[in-house]
């Protein structure tokens, strides 16, 4: 139509065609051919490599995880993007908020993986996720101050066979005879802040008294075993129970100096230090363990890509006719009804494009899983792109790796076709 000769047009297109062929067409063609050969590449294997896709346990786990990724990651990221786009439309600082939400997109997958490997660290002193989780937990459930405490040598206490984790006296106690309950195992810097110097409990004729304390003094040969010394601290707040025939007849807590006093009902009973005194402190969730590693990694992906979804949806929202929303409000619709019955239907084409784009993206996710999942749970977090890498390089099975690559291509092509078709339809409008 412009008089340009085909030869001139072909000359201009040649560099792009060469690059496209070298970087796209040739690798795809070679992968298809290589997928039909064995490990050595010399013997024709037929469809054996493709059969392995459905019989190999590692590949089946990867396929299952990819399904979880495709279902949840794009859906949640798109939903969050929609919420952010709608809520920030009416606030003055919406642009700043959008900038903050979109900022993770600037970070590479590798850097994001390293960041979230630290976020999900099991130690609450290092991992932000467990620091928050433990803080919330300890707000509603008090932790023990004596998780490592246990009876020392020649202690009158033994492990209680009826109550796991508890300690009980060997013999019944008597009123008027103070009881010594020495324990060890709590580091000096871990003792309760209100702990005072331990003292021997006074004798009271009609009460059972005693002392629970840290029977340890720094220095070799220093202190008297089984008796409170000036440098030893009482177990402030230690719970003490009097038990007769399996029933708790009295209970109390030790004072700051470790002393306690029980009523006459405790006479002839066994004294028990319940397991609540010694339970290990709550250490949070094992985010990178076998059961939570995939949701945890999906969370890091959503952190990165929710901003992408928000920007595209916000662009679509800007083109929505405001008259329709105002008309709905005039007709008596509340904000939720306007959002559900007007905004979302008008944004449906944009939401579909964003969701499908993210689906294509998660089908080839590799970096986050490879970096975040530790070696102990990487098999549980495995995805097809990671399994392709492992088969091709770690296990030296290029035939199966090529079959996985072709399988991934076959999964992506329908989604890409749907996305391109929808984009063209929107372009015509």
Give the SSE layout.
Layout: H1 6-34, H2 48-55, H3 57-87, H4 94-102, H5 109-119, H6 128-140, E1 150-151, E2 157-159, E3 167-169, E4 179-184, E5 208-214, E6 239-244, E7 247-253, E8 259-262, E9 270-273, H7 293-318, H8 322-330, H9 335-363, H10 367-372, H11 384-394, H12 398-428
Parallel strand pairs: 4-5
Antiparallel strand pairs: 1-4, 2-3, 3-9, 5-8, 6-7, 6-9
Helix pairs in contact: 1-12, 2-12, 3-7, 3-9, 3-11, 4-7, 7-9, 8-9, 9-12, 11-12
Strand content range: 5-15%
CATH topology name of the largest domain: MetI-like fold
Q: Biggest sheet: strands, sense, closure?
A: 5 strands, antiparallel
- State the name of the first-level CATH class of the largest domain: Mainly Alpha
Description:
The protein has 429 residues and is α+β, with helices and mostly antiparallel strands. It folds into 2 domains: 35-132 and 287-428, MetI-like (MetI-like fold, Orthogonal Bundle); 150-277, no CATH class. Helix content is 50%, strand content 10%. The chain is built from 12 helices and 9 strands. The chain has helices at residues 6-34, 48-55, 57-87, 94-102, 109-119, 128-140, 293-318, 322-330, 335-363, 367-372, 384-394, 398-428; strands at 150-151, 157-159, 167-169, 179-184, 208-214, 239-244, 247-253, 259-262, 270-273. Helix 2 (48-55) crosses helix 12, helix 7 crosses helix 9 (335-363) and helix 11 (384-394) packs antiparallel against helix 12.
């Amino acid at each position: 139509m412009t008089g340009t000769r085909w030869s001139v047009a072909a000359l201009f297109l040649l560099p792009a065609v060469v690059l496209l062929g070298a970087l796209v067409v040739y690798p795809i063609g070679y992968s298809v051919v290589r997928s039909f050969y064995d490990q050595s590449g010399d013997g024709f294997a037929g469809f054996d490599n493709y059969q392995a896709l459905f019989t190999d346990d590692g590949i089946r786990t990867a396929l299952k995880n990819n399904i979880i990724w495709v279902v949840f990651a794009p859906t949640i990221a798109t939903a969050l993007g929609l919420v952010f786009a709608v809520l920030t439309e009416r606030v003055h600082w919406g642009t700043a908020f959008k900038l903050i939400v979109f900022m993770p997109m600037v970070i590479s997958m590798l850097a994001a993986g390293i960041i979230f490997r630290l976020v999900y660290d099991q130690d609450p002193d290092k991992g932000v996720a467990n620091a928050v989780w433990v803080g919330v937990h300890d707000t509603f459930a008090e932790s023990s101050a004596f998780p490592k405490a246990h009876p020392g040598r020649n202690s009158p206490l033994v492990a209680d066979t009826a109550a796991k984790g508890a300690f009980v006296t060997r013999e019944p106690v008597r009123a008027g005879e103070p009881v010594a309950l020495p324990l060890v195992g709590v580091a000096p810097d871990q003792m309760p802040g209100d702990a005072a110097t331990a003292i021997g409990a006074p004798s009271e004729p009609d009460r059972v008294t005693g002392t629970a304390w840290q029977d340890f003094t720094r220095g070799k040969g220093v202190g008297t075993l089984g008796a409170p010394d000036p440098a030893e601290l009482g177990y402030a707040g230690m719970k003490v129970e009097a038990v007769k025939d399996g029933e708790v007849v009295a209970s109390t807590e030790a004072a700051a100096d470790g002393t306690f006093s029980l009523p006459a009902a405790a006479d002839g009973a066994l004294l028990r230090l319940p397991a609540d005194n010694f339970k290990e402190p709550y250490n949070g969730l094992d985010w990178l363990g076998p059961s939570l590693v995939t949701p945890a990694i999906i969370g890091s992906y959503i952190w990165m890509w929710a901003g992408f979804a928000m920007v595209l949806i916000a662009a679509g929202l800007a083109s929505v006719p405001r008259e329709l929303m105002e008309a709905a409000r005039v007709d008596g619709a509340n904000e939720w009804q306007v959002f559900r019955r007007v905004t979302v239907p008008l944004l449906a084409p944009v939401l579909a494009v964003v969701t499908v784009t993210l689906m294509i993206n998660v089908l080839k996710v590799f970096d986050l899983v490879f970096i975040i999942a530790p070696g102990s749970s990487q098999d549980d977090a495995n995805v097809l792109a990671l399994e392709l890498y492992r088969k091709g390089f770690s296990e030296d099975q290029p035939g199966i790796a090529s079959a996985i690559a072709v399988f991934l291509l076959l999964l992506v092509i329908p989604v890409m076709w749907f996305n391109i078709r929808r984009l063209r339809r929107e372009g015509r409008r």
